[in-house]
Amino acid sequence: MTEPDWNFLSTDISGAIRRIAAGSDDPRVIDWRGVRIAHIDTGVRDHPVFGGLTSETSWVNIVAGVNYIEPGEPPIEPPQNLSGTLIDDAMDWISDLSDKGVDGHGTRTLSVLCGAGSYRKGSATSRVGMLPGLPVVPYRVTDTVLLAQRSVLTNIAKAITHAVDNDCKVISMSLGFPYMRSKAVGKAIDHAYASGVIVVAAGGQFIDKVTYPGKFSRTIGVGGHTPERKIWHLGHYSKTMQRFIDTWAPSTDIVRANPGWLDDGRLYDDAKGEGTSYGTVHVVAAAALWLRHHGENKLTAHYPKGWQRVEAFRKALHDGAVPLVEPRDRQPANKTGRLNMDAVQKRKLTARASLAIRPKAETQIA
What are the CB-based long-range contacts (under 8 Å, 24+) for 235-241? Predict the structure, then answer.
C-alpha cells in the first residue's frame, strides 16, 4: 500500500525546509521575505486548510487575487462548478475527454501546495500541503482545466501579466490545452520570463501531446511520476514530446483537501489526487524554496537579466534530479529526472555566462 506521505519522502522536501527554517521541519516558521506565488486556476474555496480565507492570518490572499469569470468578485471557486457545453472554437475531439469542469480543482491543487492539516488513514498519517504558510495569490480564470475556450486563454494572459506586475515570484498553472496556442498567453509568458518570474505549468496526460502553456520553452514543463518512481502514462510522452518536460514530479496517490467538506464533513478526499496538476505544485514548492534559500539580493547580483534567474532554476532542477526507475531505453530523451527539492536547493548557482536565453513564447510554433 502506498504511504500517504510518499510524495514528501520522494521529493526530499524536509531537508530543503530545515535549511531555511533554522533546523525546523515546520514550514510555517519560514519568513518568506517577499516570495509569493500566483495560483492561476479555477479559484479557491474557504477551506480550513487555508487558515480561513477571510481572516488576517490566512496566507492565501484573496484580496490581492483577481476573478476573471465573475469580474469584481473575489476569486472564490463556486460549488460544483461545471463549464457546460463547449463553445464553437473548441476542438471537436475534446468532447471525448470531458465537457465538464473539475469540481474544486483550484482548491485541491492549492491544498497540496500550501494547505495546513494532517491526513490520517489507519495508522498512517501525512501532512497535506508541502508548504503551509507560503504566501499565495489566487486567480480564477476558468471552470475547467481543459482550455477549450479562447476567452479563457485571454483570462490566463491577463492573470499572468497581473501576477508579474504585482510582485509574484512564481506562477503556478495546473491547466492546459495541446493545440490552442495563444499569442496573448505567449506574450504574457515572455513578460514573466524577462522579469525573472518562474512559470511552472503542467505537461498533461491521457493525450499524446504536451499541453500549453507547459509546452512553451520559457516555462518549466512538468511531467508526472508514480510512487514507484516510474513515469506516469509513459506512453503519452513520445521522445519528441519529452523534450518539453523539465522535471518529473509526484502525480498520483496525492493527499488533497475535499472541496465539498461542508456537505459531507470530510476535510480530505479519500480518493487521492492524480494528474500533472499535482506534479506542478510540487515544482512550484521547489521554486519557492530555491528563491528563499538564495535570497533576492544574491539572485539579482548573480543574474542581472530576469530570464537568467529562470534558466538558473531550470538548470538546478536538471542537475539536482534523481533518476527515474525506468529501463535505459525508457529514460527521458532529454536526460531529465524526478524532482528532489533538497538537491535542487543545494546546487551552487550556475554561472550566468553558461546560460542561454530561450526563443520567444509569443512566436513559438512547435
Answer: 235/208, 236/204, 236/205, 236/206, 236/207, 236/208, 237/203, 237/210, 237/332, 238/208, 239/333, 241/208, 241/209, 241/210
Beta strands in 124-165 (DSSP E): 124-127, 136-140
> By C-alpha distance, which of 44, 86, 79, 81 is closest to 62?
44
Chain segment 55-94, per-residue pLDDT in tens? 889 999 999 999 999 999 999 998 754 433 333 333 333 4
Sorted by where each starts, the structural domains of the chain and their CATH numbers stand as 6-354 (3.40.50.200)
Q: Considering only CA atoms, which of 10, 27, 49, 35 is closest in space to residue 253?
A: 10
pTM: 0.93
CB contact at 8 A, 81 and 106: no
C-alpha 52: how far from chain center:
22
Q: The C-alpha cell of 325 is what? A: 526507475
Q: Which residues have a Cβ under 8 Å from the Cβ of 297 and sit 6 or more positions away?
A: none
**In what helix (H) or strand (E) does residue 260 lie, and over which residues does it extend?**
none
Structure confidence by residue, pLDDT tens digits, 279-335: 999 999 999 999 999 999 999 999 999 999 999 999 999 999 999 998 888 888 788
Cell of 115: 494547505
**Residue 123 burial (CB < 10 Å; 0-12/13-18/19+)?**
exposed
